[in-house]
Every structure is written in structure tokens, then in C-alpha cells.
Design brief:
The protein is of the alpha+beta class and about 170 residues long. It contains five helices and seven strands. The strands form two sheets. Strands 4-5-7-6 form a four-stranded antiparallel β-sheet, with helices on one face.
């Protein structure tokens, strides 16, 4: 069983969290501030908040994958490591399966981005950020892609990641 200390070194005296694999600082962001941020984005920008959250997630995913790409491993191991790291960061239990050479199924049980967040509009589910993260990871590791949200809700979120090989 993995532990958060497998991924992060925590120096409580100095107030520093370090990603062990990359030797770089990390930080923790609470669910309540995240919820407030999401609500405020929707209040301020309406449906434009979806794009802001997706793009922010995508840039986060690209940056994370670029860091991971500096390690010596193949893309399959990298994507699995990135999702294990997300689990250790409290994002939820992530399961990745490769359905076809160009198709992944990603399921996140108890997704922190929506299981604890009440949507400001019951028709929209705040998983735009996570969709962006997945797309950003895939951009760097596999190239152009499409992420389709299959389900998002309090119990789990599920995505289909289609890689555009040609």
C-alpha cells in the first residue's frame, strides 16, 4: 500500500512539502477553498468558468507531465505514476485502463473536485478542471487528444481519453 510519504517529504518545521521524485516543492490546497473558488468563478464568469477551469487544469496537467517526462520511464508508467501521485495528493482513487491502443478509460472514485463540491448549478458538474488535467497529461505524453466526460457525480467521475494518433 502506498503512503503519502512515498511521494512527498514533509518538513513541518520549515513548512515545506517536497515531491521526492522530482526534488521540487509541492503544496496542499483544501476542499473548502477550492469550492469557494469554483463558486466564485461561476458567479463572476458564468459558463466561461468552465473554460477557465478546463484550461487551468490543462496547464497543470501539461506542467506535471513535462516534469514527469524528465524521468527515465515509458509513457504508460508515467501516466500511471501521475495518477498514483494524484491519489496520494487526495484527488480520489484513480483507476486507469487501456481499452484500445488509442483509448483509455479513467475512473476516479470520490473525486475531490466534485464529490465534496456542490455545483453552483445542478446541471453542471465541477469536473472541468480534472478533464483539463487529463487532457494536459495526454498532450505531453501521447499528443493531441479528446477527453469525454462519461459521468461525474458524488460517487465517481469517469472519463474516456482518445488519443489522436493520425
Amino acid at each position: 500500500m502506498s503512503s503519502i510519504r512515498e511521494f512527498y517529504e514533509i518538513d513541518e518545521k520549515e513548512g515545506i512539502v517536497v515531491n521526492k521524485r522530482l526534488g521540487k516543492r509541492a503544496f496542499v490546497f483544501g476542499v473548502e477553498p477550492w469550492t469557494s473558488l469554483v463558486h466564485r468563478l461561476f458567479e463572476t464568469f458564468g459558463s466561461g468558468a468552465e473554460t477557465i477551469l478546463f484550461d487551468t487544469g490543462k496547464f497543470y496537467g501539461i506542467s506535471s507531465a513535462e516534469e514527469e517526462k524528465r524521468t527515465e520511464s515509458d509513457n504508460e508508467l508515467r501516466i500511471n505514476f501521475l495518477f498514483r501521485k494524484a491519489m496520494m495528493a487526495g484527488w480520489g482513487k484513480v483507476m486507469v485502463s487501456r481499452e484500445l491502443p488509442d483509448l483509455f478509460n479513467i475512473k476516479v472514485q470520490r473525486c475531490v473536485f466534485c464529490s465534496e463540491v456542490d455545483s453552483p448549478n445542478e446541471k453542471q458538474v465541477p469536473c472541468f478542471f480534472l478533464s483539463g488535467v487529463i487532457s494536459g497529461f495526454a498532450d505531453v505524453l501521447f499528443g493531441p487528444n479528446k477527453v469525454r466526460e462519461i459521468h461525474c457525480g458524488k460517487d465517481f467521475c469517469e472519463f474516456e481519453l482518445k488519443i489522436d494518433f493520425l
